[in-house]
Structures are given as C-alpha cells and as structure tokens.
Predict the 3D structure of the following.
Amino acid sequence: MKILVTGFDPFGGEAVNPAFEAVKLLPDEIAGAEIIKLEIPTVFSKSGPAVEAGINEHHPDVVINVGQAGGRSCVTIEKVGINLAEARIPDNAGEQPCGEPLQSDGEPAYYATIPVNAIVKNVREHGIPCHVSYTAGTYVCNCVMYNVLHMAATKYPNIRAGFIHVPFAAEQVVEKPNGTPFMSLEMIADSLKYAIEATVNNTEDIKSISGETH
C-alpha cells in the first residue's frame, strides 16, 4: 500500500507550517505502507493540481492532506469538505475568493473516505488527544480536501482520501497571547502516524457518536 501525505507551506505570516514540518518527521513506512511526503502550496488554484501531480506520479492507494488550524488544541480529523471557497485573508498567491464554488459541477459536499472515527480512537488509545471535526473551514484546507475527494469520486475511484488539521507548533506561539493552544511537532507527527496506522488497518470505519467510539 502507498499513502501520499501532503502538508502546506507556511502562510498567514507564519515562518513555518506545522503541517508539513510534522509530515517530514514521519517514517517512510507505517504499518507496512509506503509513505510518500509532498509539500503543496497554500494557494486555492494550485493546491489541488499539486496533489493530482503527486497522484499521477506515485499512484497511491490513500491520500491524506494535512493543514494548520491555529487555535485548535489538538489534531482533528475532518469528516466533510464543502463546495465553497471563501477566504478571510489572501492565499500565498494573493487569491481571495468569496462565496465561490470549488467545482461548478461538483456535489455540495463530500465525506472523507478514510476511517475518521477509527483514526480518532487509535490516536486516543496512544494517549494523545484527538477529535472529529465537522468543518474544515472555507480556506485552502477545505479547498484541497474537497477537490481531492472530488477527484477520487470522479477520476480515481480506488483512492481513499481525507484531511487532518493540526494545531500550532510550540515554537509558533512564543510571541502569541498566553493561552494560545499548541502541540509539540513530535506529538503532532505521532498523531499523524497513528492516524495512518488506523487507515491501513481499517478499510471500513467504526461506529461512533460525536467522535466518541463505542
């Protein structure tokens, strides 16, 4: 099995993006799966094509996109991507769409096809906080999640795909207000490792309510 894991470059004035920094810390093999790491641009029009180029080059079985959600206290696994681009700030190329569909012929939303609940359960069982998220926002993170799921639904039916949001890394909050949530890069990377492990071991998701598995 091959798993393509992507992380964004820094954006919004940050010197680093913990998404790709954590992805770089992942081993090259997890639970028997080959891990392919790819940095993608924080740009609405370029993020999806960058992932598709990686798909065409490596032919993965699973695509997991990773992005920063500053303000969240732990890694969160996204359940759904929506067909909407609405940017609070310009992206790294100055693009700032407002209320535009990501795909004119796409579904209103696509659900992640990685095992979201099983991932949360596995990360928690390793002593790391993790939650299901039901909103990936309307910025480039949601853009790439939706577009990759759209690709999987229309062009690459054998690919499972999903999105994981990570919090600020510790070094990012040194000059931020007291109380700003963060995790260490090592813990973020461990969360991603356990997420991938659960993805390899669960082709079908487990049942849960609001992220509480049972």
Notes: Helices lie at 18-25, 44-58, 116-125, 140-154, 185-201. Residues 153 and 159 are 9 Å apart (CA to CA). The two ends are 28 Å apart (CA to CA). The chain has one domain: 2-203.
